[in-house]
Amino acid sequence: MPHLHIENNSRASVLSHIREPQVGAARERHPGLRELKVTIGWDADILDEALKSADYLIASRPPRERLRQRAPKLSWIQTTGAGVDHLLPLDWLPPEIVLTNNSGPHGPRCEDFCTMALLALRQRLPQLMHKQREKRWDSLFTQPIAGRTCVVIGYGDLGQAAARAAKKLGLLAIAVTRSGKGTGPADEVVVSSLVETVLPKADFVIVAAPLTPETRDFMGRRRLGLLRPEAGLVNVARAALVDYAALAEMLREGRLSGAILDVHDPEPLPSDSPLWSVPNLMLTPHISCDDPRYADMLLDAWAANFARLDAGQGLRNVVDRARGY
Question: CA angle, 144 as apex, 141 and 145 as ends, to 5°?
Answer without folding.
Answer: 115
